[in-house]
Write a structure and sequence with these properties.
heterodimer, A: 124 residues, alpha+beta, three-stranded antiparallel β-sheet, 37% strand, globular, B: 363 residues, six-stranded antiparallel barrel
């Protein structure tokens, strides 16, 4: 298993050809209390760095960008009624979707954990 | 971000790690940790708000001879000493310059509490109608105000104000002593819960704030929670739901308009009473968690009938709620609406406000 991070604060965990996608702890902290998530449909195609879902917090609605291209295999249905799971466990139980990754070379456009951590430090 | 004003509590907010943001020209705490937790804190226990940014004007003069009634949509002269009243300041077009609360301090003495962003304009508008002998002063800089809101607030404040807290009725106030200073304690509130406001000299504000926070039942809450709390009560917010282009009748605030007295803008309101309103403010509840935002359009039967002025997620209802202006024929309860912006479409139903009905406000 390996985990990648995007500049837009999404994480991607790869197991075989399946990628699990969520938002980082930094992102959930920026958003504040999450109240609603508009999920993509299972079976739909997503494209790296394009909007694939929208998260609403008490403060505003924010777009979430796909860290990788692929086909949506599964969505985290628990988030429908309890999206605040993302606030509590953004990089665990608060995962958003699982995708069938279509292009592994796209991982080169992402960061590893330590690079992401220094990237975030630079933002503060 | 330049030239933002600071309340005496700014350093305390920063120490408490609040997220700060500009509001009405002031650097204010939006949230400390979680807006929803701060909201629930106010609904279940006690929340402490910094409201020092609001304006306080003091007036001394004969109410009849100084023409002051003309400056407000509501009767000032019938407010009893020790009571306060909510109402509007209007322009010649009947549009709302601001909403405010007037405190009758004495036979010839008033305090007016106004919004931060509109304060200077309010002062000039009120002053422009006054005549004769009067003293009218803006003492916002030396007056601090904090709001103690929540079902347990009376219990907490009894420690400082004794039985005065128990005797204080809704929309009343008393003069009191706190930390050796003359202060004023009132009971109006903006959250739907039992709550009190303490007006005090700015020099004791930090001390009072920190003293109150020693009790484990009370926690600071920011403007984010305050906005959600007032939204659940259907209270309009000046700048979002009320503005200079809208009349109080359109805002469904006719209760706070006394048409049997003379005031600036009255003739426009009289015409509206005669001809009927084209639009009116309504509250609506969405069919899910998704919340509309200020500026969304409102549709009914595929026709554009209005706009959203406030919206958010209601922690108490678990649904999106909001307020906005619609053509009057769509304003009746249970009218179905579609709230829309770009790709977002939310189904909603007109509902009577307050959305949150179990508050401790009048207990």
């Amino acid at each position: 298993m390996s985990r990648y991070y995007s500049k837009d604060h999404e994480w991607l965990e790869i197991e075989g050809n399946v990628g699990t996608i969520g938002i980082t702890d930094y992102a959930q902290h920026q958003l504040g209390d999450i109240t609603y998530i508009e999920m993509p449909e299972v079976g739909s195609e997503i494209k790296q760095f394009s909007i694939f879902c929208t998260i609403e917090s008490v403060k505003a609605a924010s777009d979430v960008y796909a860290p990788v291209s692929g086909k949506i295999k599964e969505i985290n249905e628990a988030l429908e009624n309890t999206p605040e799971i993302i606030n509590k466990s953004p990089e665990g139980e608060g995962w958003i979707v699982k995708v069938e990754v279509s292009n592994v070379s796209e991982f080169d456009n992402l960061m590893d954990k330590s690079s992401y951590e220094s990237y975030v430090k630079g933002l503060d | 971000m330049e030239n933002l004003k600071s309340t005496p509590l700014e350093a305390e907010h920063i120490r408490l790690k609040a997220k700060m943001a500009p509001f009405g020209g002031w650097n204010m705490p939006i949230q400390y940790e979680s807006i929803i937790e701060e909201h629930m804190q106010c609904r279940k226990s006690i929340a402490l708000f910094d409201t020092c940014h609001m304006g306080e004007f003091f007036f001394t003069g004969d109410l009849e001879k100084t023409n002051i009634e003309r400056a407000f949509s509501f009767k000032v002269g019938t407010i009893k000493v020790g009571k306060c009243r909510y109402g509007l300041i209007l322009n010649e077009k009947g549009g709302m310059v601001d909403d405010c609360i007037i405190y009758r301090l004495g036979e010839n003495e008033l305090m007016m509490v106004v919004n931060a962003g509109t304060k200077d304009n309010d002062f000039n508008v009120i002053k422009s109608v006054l005549k004769g002998d009067f003293v009218f002063e803006d003492k916002s800089e030396v007056t601090s105000k904090i709001d103690v809101q929540g079902p347990l607030s009376r219990d907490l404040l009894r420690k400082y104000f004794g039985s005065a807290v128990d005797e204080l009725k809704y929309f009343s106030f008393v003069n009191a002593n706190l930390m050796g200073q003359d202060v004023m304690l009132s009971r109006t509130g903006y959250t739907g819960e039992l709550g009190f406001e303490i007006y005090m000299p700015s020099k004791i504000c930090v001390e009072v704030w920190n003293e109150l926070l020693k009790d484990e039942r009370i926690k600071p809450a920011g403007l984010g929670a305050r906005d959600l709390l007032r939204l659940e009560m259907g209270y309009p917010l000046y700048g979002s739901d009320l503005d200079e282009e809208t009349t109080p009748l359109e805002a469904d605030l006719s209760y706070f308009v006394h048409l049997d007295k003379d005031f600036v803008g009255k003739d426009v309101l009289m015409k509206q009473v005669e001809n009927g309103l084209e639009k009116i403010r309504v509250g609506f509840v969405c069919d899910g968690r998704r919340a509309p935002r200020h500026g969304y359009r409102i549709f009914a039967d595929g026709v554009d009938i209005g706009y959203v002025t406030s919206g958010g997620f209601s922690p108490s209802l678990g649904k999106g709620i909001g307020m906005g202006y619609v053509k009057t024929k769509y304003s009746s309860e249970n009218s179905t609406l579609e709230l829309s912006q770009d790709k977002v479409k939310i189904n909603a139903v007109v509902e009577k406000i307050p959305f949150y009905k179990d508050g401790s406000l009048r207990k």
